[in-house]
Amino acid sequence: MSDPERPRPSSFEDLSDLEVHTQRDAVATGRRTAIVTTAAVVLFAGALFAILYVVLLAPFASSSATVTISGGTIAVLIAYGAAQAVAGVLVVLLVPAGRWVGIVVAVVGIVLGLVRAASTPASGFVSILLSAFVIYALASSGPSFRRG
What we know:
Layout: H1 23-26, H2 34-63, H3 71-92, H4 96-117, H5 121-139
């Protein structure tokens, strides 16, 4: 028998079948999301453009009287392009260290974008925005890089 002093809850107040989803449930561990894939594509595109610049444009720019590119600049571009490619591969493979490598490479990209903005503001601004996107994407996608 039921207790006469205790009121019976109505079906409106019965919350026993309520499902609560947390942020942790939103992204499966070890699963590549669209934002992580896009960050990897941005890293690969940056590597491709760095290499194309060195191969296609640097020989012509160094022969010009107004623009000179030193060997050190070419070496930095090659190293940065290689770092972007490595970070892109690590992000695609969801290696936990790849997330941090990608963030560090993107921070370097922001610094290089600021330097580039002094001579070509539009190009520097685009570089800064793309690097900022990579930082945001990798910083917000931590669960994707966890093994589980």
